[in-house]
Amino acid sequence: DIQMTQSPSSLSASVGDSVTISCRASQDISNYLAWYQVKPGGVPALLIYRASTLQTGVSSRFSGSGSGTDFTLTINNLQPEDVGTYYCQKYNSAPLTFGGGTRVDMK
Amino acid sequence: QVQLLESGPGVVKPSQTLSLTCAISGDFVSSNSASWDWIRQSPSRGLEWLGRTYYKSKWYKEYAVSVQGRITINPDTSKNQVSLHLNSVSPEDTAVYFCAKGYKWDAFSSIYFVDVWGRGTTVIVSS
């Protein structure tokens, strides 16, 4: 099975900062990658699919890039409401494996 | 607007079977463009995809290796719902369980990404 590795596992940043989260697949998954946000006490929400397509209604401060095995989620102009845990997930075929998650906190 | 509502017992004893139901509104379980997934979340394991079912001329079921042999996901077209059964549970199965809908971007493929989530239901495995 394909493994998904996220880094860092946690980060702390200030309001207005840009943060980058990395996700690496153990095999080529083309662009079949999604990113999800889980706010404290909340339900996961889709941010990005096909590696770089923003889900309807999601802030343009979020962006995704990458293809093959290396992917990136960038949050520009970090806001307090962005606090939470972010997960990548590959979906080219079952099993739909998640990365281990990246916790984002405010300094 | 698709809505998913999970239901089931909040506590299950070790070695017994965990059974949950997901009621679907706004779509059909037999839709040709959707998959119906079960995903769980725990502090120690983060998000973990458990499996899914979808209809594409016939029913397909796919499961995670970690629960293969213990898990069954069944569609119920008469009630428009999907169920999860996980047997021989242990405390490691304690988690919030989510029902989710997968969306098929390409009508000719079997590639779905999860775009809608239920609110989740907490299951504790304890004697």
Give me the secondary-structure topology.
The complex is a heterodimer of chains A (about 110) and B (about 130).
Chain A: E1 4-7, E2 10-13, E3 19-25, E4 33-38, E5 45-49, E6 53-54, E7 62-67, E8 70-75, E9 84-90, E10 102-106
Parallel strand pairs in A: 2-10
Antiparallel strand pairs in A: 1-3, 3-8, 4-5, 4-9, 5-6, 7-8, 9-10
Chain B: E1 3-7, E2 11-12, E3 18-25, E4 34-42, E5 46-55, E6 59-63, E7 71-76, E8 81-86, E9 95-104, E10 112-117, E11 121-125
Parallel strand pairs in B: 2-11
Antiparallel strand pairs in B: 1-3, 3-8, 4-5, 4-9, 5-6, 7-8, 9-10, 9-11
Walk me through what this model shows.
- In chain A, 0% of the residues lie in helices and 49% in strands.
- Chain A is globular and about 35 Å long.
- The model of chain A has no long low-confidence stretch (mean pLDDT 97).
- In chain A, a hairpin with a 3-residue loop joins strand 5 and strand 6 (53-54).
- Chain A has strands at residues 4-7, 10-13, 19-25, 33-38, 45-49, 53-54, 62-67, 70-75, 84-90, 102-106.
- By secondary structure, chain A is an all-beta fold.
- Chain B is mainly β and 127 residues long.
- In chain B, the strands form two sheets. In chain B, strands 2, 4, 5, 6, 9, 10 and 11 form a seven-stranded mixed sheet that branches.
- In chain B, a hairpin with a 4-residue loop joins strand 7 and strand 8 (81-86).
- The model of chain B has no long low-confidence stretch (mean pLDDT 96).
- The chains are: A mainly beta (107), B mainly beta (127).
